[in-house]
């Protein structure tokens, strides 16, 4: 080899500056190799150009084929879309084997003149991005470039004069050689499919190659050799698989707002495409929605949220899903948490921390783990945990590209996990708020036997604003309430709490149901106005609710009800028949300007009253009408306890996956016995007070309540005297022996008394103060005909 000349067996090539390579042709002007630059100039891909005459592609006859070893000229090259340009081109003779015709390299010149020499041949053999080799009729290699030797894993000295089997092994080699023989036999070029082979120099690494074959023709137009151009598709395929996996991660991870499920989705995606076993460990606080410590975690006490393996039931897992494990300071998990950086262990010897744990060492030996990756689960500057990827069946160890892919997948999962954590925290807060606002147990009272159920909707919807309540009233009466605030989340729960408190406050004033709903309507309007004033978006001001309010009197057996846009209540009569009560609808709360109407019905002893929210009767699986029919069917003939009936109705009506909250309140009414109530008409005469006291003492004696006689005499004396002095006729006294002793004085005046502090020398003003001190509680109730002043006192334990 002398300066400027490169010799190969049977080949004499003179080189120079190649400029931009375009194509390689055989001696007859047929394309055997086609570059990207040529594709851009002409608009044809390599698969479309190889094997065709260059004159058809460039639009000019190959003048250089009959000329000297080098030819310079300008060609008018036309693009498929119609544009044409003048391109300076140089054709260089590459030479050929003994008895074979030469190849020609076409290059676009970047200078008007350039020197001849070894540059062109040097580029072809060392820098050409295409792997090119020439095989003779016996399938022996006679010429190749550096890219081909790199793919084959051999040097030119080793492979010149050898066949493919000297460098490659696998079934793909036989397929490749069969195609080369077919090209020699038919003289037709072939664009090859993907073949899988391994090299003798690296038998553990599979290569995916695409080989394009073109015939080299002799003087008699017979095929005397094959030009092979090879593309290693592993890199391109790897990039495609990487993009596909990242795209799938965006779709398949984070489909729910559940921390455990999101962790499992991450593991499911990575096995077996990236690893043979994946486990995800998270900081324990994450599962409860608590805020993890800011910055990098210093400890290594983690809870396993996901395992996934190529083997059934993940037998490799040392820690089951849901358990907590402690990782020592020298472990990969602890190091990953402390530094916030990923780590790659290509061999077991690098993972010394595994060998210090006998249980993990046994698993490594049993399943053949040989490579590890640890990736921190970081989101918004907070460390949430660690994901670990392991390989056993994959013969190749993890590479830097694998670690980069794992980091991107985990990063996307980390955001979903943090979103799930934040949702869990908000939902937990909303549930805690709601539970604190809903009754934990129903109050003790004699008017009804009641039971209730509250069932939240789907977790991703957030907590709703449904509520129920049972409120004891004066005179042994009881108020039954059910309501539903529009929307979900903390806003709905907070609004529900305010409305429930308002209902209890208004009920304590003993307002009729229609008046109570009117006051509640005003409150919702004010809440919406306040929310609109302080809200950052208009959605926050959309506050609305429905409500049903019922008051049952066990003395008369009558129930007074009013509703504000709420579903009709159902009643089951003692004979087992069920029906909906016909009540005026009333507008939903928050509209304002429209009246509410009360309806009074008589409920026989043992009747069952059912109050509920629309989430019980309406869902995606059934409309309202169907839901009401099913509700009445489940309630009909039911003589079970309200608690058992609640379970029966809920199981029958509610689907497994609810789209809304549901609340149900069942109350079986009771009536007080006639001997538990005593009533006297009182003349408007102060002298009648002493006689009234005597009647009271006698009644208490009949009830075996003599211990309460002294206080009751004082209370009755003060209340009756006030009614005679400041009220109007008719005046009536009523005693009720229930869980407590209730004293009621009814008169025809609507003026309500109030407490005041009497001065030292005042002759009056101490009556109500005395009543308040001697009894448990007292109050007034406005009626259509006047008012009721009542008080309650505890009965002796043995009564």
TrEMBL record:
The keyword Membrane is annotated on this UniProt entry: no
Superkingdom of this protein's organism: Bacteria
UniProt xrefs under InterPro entries: Bact_Sigma-Reg (IPR052016), GAF (IPR003018), GAF-like_dom_sf (IPR029016), HATPase_C_sf (IPR036890), HATPase_dom (IPR003594), PAS (IPR000014), PAS-like_dom_sf (IPR035965), PAS_4 (IPR013656)
Region annotation Disordered: where it falls in the sequence: 1-20
GO MF term list: phosphatase activity
Keywords: Hydrolase, Plasmid
UniProt cross-references to Pfam families, sorted A to Z: GAF (PF01590), HATPase_c_2 (PF13581), PAS_4 (PF08448), SpoIIE (PF07228)
Sequence ranges assigned to domain PAS in this UniProt record: 21-58
Name the record gives this protein: SpoIIE family protein phosphatase
């Amino acid at each position: 080899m002398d300066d400027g000349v490169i010799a190969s067996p049977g080949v004499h090539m003179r080189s120079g500056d190649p400029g931009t390579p375009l194509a390689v042709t055989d001696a007859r002007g047929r394309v055997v190799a086609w570059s990207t630059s040529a594709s851009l100039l002409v608009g044809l891909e390599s698969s479309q150009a190889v094997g065709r005459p260059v004159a058809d592609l460039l639009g000019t006859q190959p003048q250089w084929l009959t000329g000297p070893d080098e030819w310079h000229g300008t060609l008018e090259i036309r693009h498929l879309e119609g544009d044409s340009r003048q391109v300076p081109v140089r054709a260089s003779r590459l030479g050929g084997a003994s008895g074979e015709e030469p190849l020609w390299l076409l290059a676009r010149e970047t200078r008007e003149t350039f020197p001849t020499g070894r540059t062109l041949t040097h580029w072809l053999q060392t820098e050409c991005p295409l792997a090119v080799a020439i095989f003779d009729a016996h399938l022996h290699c006679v010429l190749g470039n550096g890219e081909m030797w790199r793919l084959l894993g051999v040097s030119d000295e080793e492979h010149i004069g050898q066949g493919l089997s000297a460098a490659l092994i696998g079934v793909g080699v036989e397929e490749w050689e069969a195609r080369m023989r077919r090209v020699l036999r038919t003289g037709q070029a072939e664009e090859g499919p993907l073949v899988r082979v391994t090299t003798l120099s690296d038998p553990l690494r599979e290569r995916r190659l695409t080989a394009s074959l073109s015939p080299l023709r002799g003087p008699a137009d017979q095929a005397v050799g094959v030009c092979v151009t090879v593309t290693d598709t592993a890199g391109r395929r790897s990039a495609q698989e990487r993009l596909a996996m990242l795209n799938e991660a965006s779709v398949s991870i984070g489909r729910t707002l559940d921390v455990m499920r999101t962790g499992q989705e991450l593991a499911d995606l990575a096995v077996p495409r990236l690893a043979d076993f994946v486990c995800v460990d998270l900081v324990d606080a994450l599962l409860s929605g608590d805020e993890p410590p800011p910055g990098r975690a210093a400890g290594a006490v983690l809870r396993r949220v996901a395992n996934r393996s190529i083997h059934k039931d993940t037998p490799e897992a040392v820690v089951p899903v849901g358990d907590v494990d402690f990782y020592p300071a020298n472990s990969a998990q602890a190091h990953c948490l402390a530094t916030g950086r990923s780590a790659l262990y290509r061999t077991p010897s690098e993972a010394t921390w595994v060998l210090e744990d006998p249980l993990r060492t046994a698993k490594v030996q049993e399943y053949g783990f040989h490579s590890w990756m640890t990736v921190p689960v970081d989101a918004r500057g907070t460390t949430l945990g660690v994901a670990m990827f392991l390989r056993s069946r994959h013969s190749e160890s993890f590479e830097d590209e694998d670690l980069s892919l794992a980091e991107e997948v985990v990063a996307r999962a980390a955001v979903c996990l943090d979103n799930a954590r934040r949702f869990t925290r908000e939902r937990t807060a909303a549930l805690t708020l709601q539970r604190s606002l809903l009754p934990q147990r129903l109050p003790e009272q004699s008017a009804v036997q009641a039971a209730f159920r509250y069932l939240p909707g789907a977790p991703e919807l957030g907590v709703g604003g449904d509520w129920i309540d049972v409120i004891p009233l004066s005179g042994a009466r009881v108020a039954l309430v059910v309501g539903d605030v529009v929307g979900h989340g903390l806003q709905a729960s907070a609004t529900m709490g305010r409305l429930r408190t308002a209902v209890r406050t208004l009920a304590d004033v003993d307002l009729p149901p229609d008046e109570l709903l009117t006051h509640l309507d005003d409150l919702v309007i004010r809440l919406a106005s306040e929310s609109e004033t302080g809200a950052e978006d208009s959605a926050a001001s959309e506050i609305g609710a429905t409500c049903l309010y019922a008051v049952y009197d066990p003395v008369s057996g009558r129930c007074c009800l009013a509703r504000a846009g709420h579903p009709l209540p159902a009643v089951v009569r003692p004979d087992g028949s069920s029906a909906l009560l016909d009540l005026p609808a009333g507008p939903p709360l928050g509209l304002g300007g429209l009246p509410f109407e009360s309806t009074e019905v008589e409920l026989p002893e043992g009747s069952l009253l059912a109050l509920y929210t629309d989430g019980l009767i309406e869902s995606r699986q059934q409309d309202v009408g169907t839901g009401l029919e099913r509700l009445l069917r489940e309630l009909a003939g039911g003589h079970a306890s309200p608690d058992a009936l609640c379970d029966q109705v809920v199981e029958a009506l509610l689907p497994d996956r609810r789209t809304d909250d549901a609340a149900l309140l069942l109350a079986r009414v009771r009536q007080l016995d006639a001997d538990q109530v005593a009533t006297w008409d009182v003349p408007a005469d102060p002298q009648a007070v002493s006689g009234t006291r005597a009647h009271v003492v006698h009644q208490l004696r009949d009830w075996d309540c003599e211990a309460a006689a002294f206080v009751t005499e004082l209370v009755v004396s003060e209340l009756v005297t006030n009614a005679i002095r400041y009220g109007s006729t008719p005046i009536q006294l009523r005693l009720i022996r229930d869980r407590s002793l209730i004293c009621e004085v009814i008169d025809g005046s609507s003026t309500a008394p109030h407490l005041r502090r009497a001065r030292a020398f005042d002759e009056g003003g101490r009556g109500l103060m005395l009543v308040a001190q001697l009894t448990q509680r007292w109050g007034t109730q406005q009626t259509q005909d006047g008012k009721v002043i009542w008080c309650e006192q505890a009965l002796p334990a043995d009564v």
